[in-house]
Each structure stands twice: as C-alpha cells, then as structure tokens.
C-alpha cells in the first residue's frame, strides 16, 4: 500500500513537472513573439503636456500616446485618424470633420475613462489659446477665427472662437481666411484633443506623470521614471491596433547615450544607435560592422547659424560689444561668407557632405508652384544655387566692418557659440568652426568661444533665453506652406530677434521683414503667394540675419527599424510615430538602404500623383 502511494505521488509529481515545463515553454514562446524596440537616450523630457510644449523630444512621445484628426501614410498622403472624413467650403475657410465613433480615453493601465468626442478638440484648443497656460504652439492655432483676439484678451467668450462641436461627432473650424493647407496643420499637437474634465481636474499637474495623463493613441506610457527609463506599451483598446506592430518601446536613460549607444548596439542591448563620425571609419572598415550601418533618412528640418540681436549671456562674454558688432551688416556678412559649411558637415557626413547642405531656410522639395520648386523662385534662386562660403568676400567684408566699427566696437569681438553637450558630433563641429573661421578672419577680429550647454533642456536654457551670439539652430515645418519657415524670425519669434536689428524698420514703424511676410500671407493664390515669401526669405539671407546650413536627419545609424514603413510627412508629428513601423531581423546596410530609398521615392511619386 505504501509502495502504491509512493508510486502515485511520483507519477503526480512528474505530471506537475510536465505541466509547469509546458507553461514555461508557452511563456517563453510568448515572450519571444513580443516585438520590443529598445533605445538609450540622454535628453530627458520635462513634460507630457502636448498642448504646451514645442520641444521635439517631448511631443515625439506624446504623438504616440494621443491621436489627432488625421495622420499620414508612408508616402505622405493624408489618411483618416480620429476623423473618418472631412470637407471644406469653396474657399477653404470653413472645415468640417466627422469623427470616428467608439474611440476611448483610457488611463495608463488601459482602463476606460470616457469616449473621445468633438468637444475634446474644442477643449484642447481652448487650453492652447488661453494665454495663462503659456502654450508654445498657440501662435499656430491663431489661424482659427478670433484665435488671436482670445489669446490677447480682446474677447473673453471662447464661443466666439472658430471651433465648434456641432454634435458629439461633428467638429467645425472657421478660420481667419482661406487656408487651403489647413489639413496639414492638424498634424501638429496644438490641434490634438484632450478630455476637458480630466484636464480641469488635474490642473497644472496634467502631463507631469503617467497617471496625470489620458491616452487614446497607439501606446500607453506604462513606465515613466525620469532619468531612469520610460516604457511605451501597445494600447489594447486602440481603434487601429492591427496596424501597431511593435508591442513595446523601452527607453533607457544614460547621460552618455550618444557615446555608449554604438557599443550597446553591438552587444544587442539596444536596437538603434547613431554612429558618431569619430568611429565611422572603424565601422566601415570592419567586415561585420559595415553591414550594420546606413545613412539616416533626411527630414525637412532646416538647420542654420543665427546671429542673435538680443544677447542675454553673461558679462564676461561682452554682450554689449556683441550687440554693436552684430548690428553692422558688413560684420555679419564677413561671418556669413567665412563659414566653410563643407568642413562643418564633415563632422557628421564625411563621405557625401555636399548632399546635405541647404542654401536656403526652406529646404528643396517642400512645396512648388506649377511644378517649379519654391527654392527656385526669384530672388531666392540665386542663394539656392550658390555656396555662401567665399574667402575673398569674407575678408573684404571684414575690412569694411573694421573701418566702420572703429571706435565703436572692441576687437576681437567675442562670439559665444554654445552647443548641446549630449551631441558629440555637434561638439566636434563647434571646434572645427571655431578654428576654421578664426584662421580665415583672424583672431584679431573674432574670438569664437565654444560653450558646452546642457544635454537636457538646451532649448529652454540656452536658445530661447538668448544666451548665445552665433549658434547652430533648427526649425521644422508645422504645415504645408512657406509661411511656416518665417515663424522664428517675425516679431515674437523664439530665435535671434531680427526685429531688434538696427536700421530695419519700415515706414509704418514695423520691421521690414514682418511687412514682407504679412504681404505674402495676405495673398491666397500660390502663384502670387509663394514668390512673395521667396522675396522675404531672400531678404533674410541677403542681410545675413542667418547662415543657411543643412537639412536634418544626416549622419549614420545602426537600426533595426525599417525607415520606409514609417508614417511620412514634411511637417507635424507623423514622423515621430511608431504606429505602422516594424523591426527588421537584421539592420539595413547602406547599399540596401539606397536601393530601398530609390524604390520608395518611385512609389511615393505615384502615390502623390494618384492622391492629387
């Protein structure tokens, strides 16, 4: 009897072991099937409040958590998002959107809170246009009728602003005037919805944590520990979950992310790494590593060097002396022509540097009129087709500036040029530019001072407060119209304050550039409108308020992401979304990338032609 009991117990134990083993294998198989994308980062986000921020690394996260009315496919063709359909009146001044029913607001655990309705878009815009909330993107939303008047306090009744919920699923925008490109503006965060009751309940705490946030997008923020990690997990209630292929996105913080990422990639600990120029040759000369890297895709972000007319840096860098010098056109022109952009570009693209240079503020292929690219319109074309670097002109302008500034400015003029310390290529570029420009113009003329700014909050701590003299900055388009590239430079913009430049006030008391831009904005037909914007942009460059440099997205990366299944748009947040993206078994090498890019460009041209 005892023997039988013992045999039975042994048999039972064996069965339990087999069951546990089977469960373990099932769990392991499920884990293996889960698609996880891992990345390391150094620039921490300070807020999830997409209605307030304009910083790319912040709204790039929010774009995966909250959907807007529309999105774009991988060729750049507008697609339904939370709006299933839309229409405009004849002059494109009134737009009506029919919303998708059954979309839910959920918390970070996926628990349903409310249904997404047209009222949420009204509540979102009301927050953005309320000046006390200090939204960085409110100026975009003033395209809506009475948007500026409400923001400025001229009217206090928001019902007079041109956004209405006609019912729970019908949303109407009435604009200040005809705006045929309004659809493209909806791809930006200031037009995203928010659940008003939740926003009111959380107040200033909205967007400060995963708990103080509601989700209707492809992902939930299931982990958020600043300067440690954040995790985005596929939203199981998402309306279009079948087109979300990456189950989890894991961000790991490391203040040296740019330096350690390549090694982490080789060890299989991350799925993407930018490869700094300093180690590019090593990777390309290694038979295994060379098949892991490719060029990154370019974007429509425009990079340029800006002269600051409102210096707010410390006295040791002589801001008053800089102000005297920068207000001399010949001084600006000397630096404009002295910057060897190819030498600068070699710090991030050592093999094909010229291919990424941009001679204008607006990049090529952004918009066209009757088949003529905007950058080829006169008088902008003369800059588009010529390199700004010219040694002889630089020295000629230097002599003129020194003569005109004699007794007014002290030489050498200190030129404070900060860079983001989290970007090694930028650090190298700053050193290259310092040596190159000082060697050409002479250290008796300029003393370029490179300064390592913070890796987190660089925009808010350095650029916006004006703590620079001459610095690399960038701007990305927010909608499909040349006016989007004028926004940093008109009065109230966030860049180098050209409206404060001496001698550039028009007869009506307004800055000349502002008047040129306003004249262009008043024109509706692109045949009239685009040439006027081209004149304004040419003026900005001719007067050397900026030095155009390059387009964004340059350099080399190792990545398991397929770059050609991503949502594509020249503007807004679509490029930041992981929806639709897939992980490759092996990274693309450069040859595969170029071949796939050529095929994508061919398919895109066909898709755009069919869409038109």
UniProtKB/TrEMBL annotation:
GO terms for molecular function: peptide transmembrane transporter activity. Its main location: membrane. GO terms for cellular component: ATP-binding cassette (ABC) transporter complex; periplasmic space. One of its GO terms (biological process) is peptide transport. It is a lipid-anchor. Residues 1-21 form the signal peptide. PROSITE patterns: PROKAR_LIPOPROTEIN, SBP_BACTERIAL_5. The keyword Transmembrane does not apply. It is found in: Cell membrane. Keywords: Signal, Transport. Residues 78-495 form the Solute-binding protein family domain. Belongs to the bacterial solute-binding protein 5 family. This is Peptide ABC transporter substrate-binding protein. It comes from Ureibacillus thermophilus.
């Amino acid at each position: 009897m005892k023997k039988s009991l013992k045999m039975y117990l042994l048999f039972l134990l064996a069965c339990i072991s087999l069951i546990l083993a089977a469960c373990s294998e099932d769990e392991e198989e499920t884990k293996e099937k889960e698609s996880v994308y891992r990345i390391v980062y150094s620039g921490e986000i300070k807020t999830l409040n997409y209605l307030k921020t304009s910083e790319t690394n912040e709204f790039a996260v929010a774009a995966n958590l909250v959907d807007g009315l529309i999105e774009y496919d991988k060729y750049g063709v507008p697609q339904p998002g939370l709006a299933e359909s839309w229409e405009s009146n004849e002059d494109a001044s009134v737009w009506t959107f029919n919303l998708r029913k059954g979309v839910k607001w959920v918390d970070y655990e996926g628990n349903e809170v409310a249904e997404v309705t047209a009222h949420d878009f009204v509540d979102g815009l009301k927050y953005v246009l309320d000046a006390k909330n200090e939204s960085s993107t409110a100026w975009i939303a003033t395209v809506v009728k009475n948007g500026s008047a409400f923001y400025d306090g001229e009217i206090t009744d928001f019902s007079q602003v041109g956004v209405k919920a006609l019912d729970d699923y019908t949303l109407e925008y009435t604009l200040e005037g005809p705006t045929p490109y309004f659809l493209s503006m909806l791809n930006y965060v200031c037009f995203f919805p928010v659940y008003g009751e939740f926003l009111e309940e959380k107040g200033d705490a909205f967007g400060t944590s995963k708990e103080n946030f509601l989700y209707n997008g492809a992902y939930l923020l299931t982990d958020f520990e600043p300067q440690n990690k954040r995790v985005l997990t596929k939203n199981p209630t998402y309306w279009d979950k079948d087109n979300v292929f990456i189950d989890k996105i894991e961000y790991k913080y490391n203040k040296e992310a740019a330096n350690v990422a390549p090694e982490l990639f080789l060890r299989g600990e991350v799925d993407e790494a930018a490869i700094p120029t300093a180690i590019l040759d090593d990777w390309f000369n290694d038979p295994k590593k060379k098949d892991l890297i490719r060029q990154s895709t370019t974007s429509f972000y425009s990079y340029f060097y800006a002269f600051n007319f409102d210096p707010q840096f410390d006295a040791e860098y002589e801001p008053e002396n800089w102000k005297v010098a920068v207000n001399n056109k010949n001084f600006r022109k000397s630096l404009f022509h002295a910057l060897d952009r190819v030498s600068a570009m070699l710090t991030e693209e050592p093999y094909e540097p010229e291919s990424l240079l941009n001679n204008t503020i607006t990049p090529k292929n952004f918009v066209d009129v009757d088949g003529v690219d905007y950058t080829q319109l006169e008088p902008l074309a003369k800059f588009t087709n010529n390199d700004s670097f010219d040694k002889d002109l630089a020295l000629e302008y230097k002599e003129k500036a020194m003569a005109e500034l004699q007794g007014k400015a002290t030489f050498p003029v200190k030129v404070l040029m900060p860079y983001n310390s989290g970007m090694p290529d930028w650090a190298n570029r700053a050193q290259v530019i310092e040596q190159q420009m000082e060697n050409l113009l002479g250290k008796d003329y300029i003393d370029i001072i490179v300064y390592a700014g913070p890796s987190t909050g660089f925009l808010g701590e350095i650029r916006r407060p004006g703590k620079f003299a001459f610095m690399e900055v960038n701007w990305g388009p927010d909608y499909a119209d040349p006016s989007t590239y004028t926004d940093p430079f008109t009065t109230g913009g966030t860049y180098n304050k050209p409206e404060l430049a001496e001698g550039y006030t028009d007869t009506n008391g307004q800055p000349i550039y502002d008047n040129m831009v306003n004249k262009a904005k008043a024109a509706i037909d692109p045949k009239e409108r685009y040439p006027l914007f081209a004149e304004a942009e040419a003026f900005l460059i001719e007067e050397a308020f900026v030095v155009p440099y390059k387009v964004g997205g340059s350099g080399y990366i190792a990545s398991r992401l397929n770059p050609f299944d991503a949502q594509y748009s020249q503007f807004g947040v679509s490029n930041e979304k992981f929806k639709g993206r897939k992980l490759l078994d092996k990274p693309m090498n450069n040859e595969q990338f170029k071949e796939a890019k050529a095929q994508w460009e061919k398919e895109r041209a066909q898709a755009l032609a069919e869409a038109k």
